[in-house]
Amino acid sequence: GKGAACDMALDEYSRSQVQAAVVAVGGSVGLYGHKPGGGDWQVGVRDPEGSGSLGVLSLPGGFVSTSGSYEKYFEQDGKKYHHILDPRTGYPAESGLVSVTVWCPPGMDVKYPGALSDGLATACFVLGLEDGMELLESYGAEGIFITEGGDITITEGLEGRFTLGEGG
Which of 17, 25, 18 has its CA nearest to residue 7? Predict the structure, then answer.
């Protein structure tokens, strides 16, 4: 729903002839038009181990969505239960990931790219690193995968667009 809300906001900006805008709804961000002053938009990627930024994405536009197990969860009897469910089991996904950030670049030939980025982030989280990367490739989307062990994997299209922060 958050990605779809970004789609709706950016559609309204377009109808209202807004030149450029950023809209953020939860874990989804829509980047509209050209950044005032030139250059790429800067989008922070949250550190799943803390409250700060892991790094920054520099993007010309499009939609960015993140799904992670680090915000909405509880622990019971030493086990962590988060809100991203695996539809195959009905239980929280156990994919070895703590966070997936997906970028749907501008110009994708889909009606709702914000909703797509949101859905892909969740699907990739459930599928895990290898299958998630294959899914992104099939849609022409890009991503950042962070494992439970803290390893970071980025897709080829984000190489040179993601810069780790001081803590990353």
Answer: 25
Half-sphere exposure of 49 (CA within 13 A, CB side): 11
54 touches 31 (CB < 8 A):
no
- Report pLDDT digits (tens) over 87-118: 899 989 899 999 999 999 998 889 999 999 99
Tokens for 30, please give them: 């829509």
Distance CA 104, CA 72 (A): 24
SS3 of 102, please? strand
Look up tokens 């950016």; give the residue: 10
Helices (H), 105-147: 113-127, 129-139
Give the residue ranges of DSSP H helices in 18-95. Answer: none
Place of tokens 């699907």: 123
